[in-house]
Write a structure and sequence with these properties.
295 residues, alpha/beta, Rossmann fold, 6-stranded mixed β-sheet
Length: 295
């Protein structure tokens, strides 16, 4: 029996139940408590896929990424090495279905090109609250040319376990003969200011820049998560004071593996993303900077 490893990613808006689906599949457990995924969380699970003539043991590396829209650089870095994706919606929120077509599918297509996709309507146990069903999911799959068909659409419930194992096994089968693709069409200059409009964009660029220099989002996530919590930075509604503290925390971490000049330059360029004056930066290297009102 052969053994192969495949990387699969769960994508979709925040709070659609991606983490709960992973937990149900891996540990057969469920919790109503919502936990925001920050950066990238990777969980390992072994499965057997058994065609009649070639039984295969597959090690699934299940990648659960940040679900807040607006963090496209961080999310794109999380697609590195992905073999397939589970696109998750919340049946009680129609906007999460629209987000797949408007945001998530274009994002993964730009990053890695066509990969097997499975479309999922989660929280099927909340039938009285459902705003759409399998027909709408199948319609979306058909619109996404080259990404799947109606037989790759499922209703799931992380709470009851409905179809949870099925979606992961189906993805394992779909990725068996597919190798990972390199990231495509990603700007090498993460710190370009052209696409920075909101404070979320600023945080996205800072996280992506730190992650790349730290060796990848999978390695940087524990550090990022700890520092976000330490400074009270809410990814949904970041504020400037918390962002400044976050930049300083990252600079402190980099002091252990970069030169003084590299740390200073990194800190300066991250602060300058949202309009710091050079003179304010130089005067206040201790972290007590004041934002430039000229944006």
């Amino acid at each position: 029996m052969s053994t192969i490893k495949r990387n699969i990613v769960l994508i979709g808006d925040a709070s659609v139940g991606k983490t709960s689906l992973v937990r149900r599949f891996v540990t057969d457990d469920f919790s109503d408590k919502y936990i925001t995924t920050i950066g990238l969380k990777v969980t390992k699970k072994e499965v057997d896929i058994c065609p009649e003539d070639d039984r295969t043991n597959m090690v699934l590396m299940i990648w659960d990424i940040i679900g807040q829209k607006g963090y496209k650089h961080t999310q794109s870095l999380s697609f590195k090495g992905v073999n397939g994706a589970l696109l998750v919606t919340d049946l009680t929120r129609k906007d999460t279905l629209d987000s797949l077509l408007d945001y998530w599918i274009p994002l993964i297509l730009k990053a890695v090109g066509p990969v097997p996709l499975i479309f999922i309507g989660n929280k099927a146990d909340l039938k009285d609250e459902a705003q759409f069903g399998i027909a709408e999911i199948e319609s979306l799959a058909q619109k996404s040319e080259g990404f799947g068909s109606t037989n790759k659409c499922f209703l799931t419930s992380a709470k009851t376990g409905e179809n949870v194992e099925e979606i992961f096994i189906r993805m394992a089968e779909a990725t068996k003969e597919r190798h990972s693709r390199p990231l495509m069409n990603l700007s090498m200059d993460i710190m370009k200011k052209d696409d920075i409009i909101t404070l979320q964009d600023v945080v996205d660029h800072i996280i992506a820049d730190f992650s790349e220099q730290f060796g990848g989002i999978e390695h940087a996530t524990p550090m990022i998560k700890h520092q976000l919590q330490a400074v009270g930075l809410n990814l949904d509604k970041p504020n400037e004071v918390a962002v400044v503290k976050f930049v300083d925390k990252l600079a402190h971490i980099e002091e252990s593996f970069k030169t003084v000049d590299e740390v200073k330059n990194n800190r300066m360029k991250r602060l300058q993303l949202f309009g710091y004056k050079q003179e304010n930066f130089n005067k206040n290297e201790g972290g007590g900077n004041h934002l430039n009102e000229e944006r």
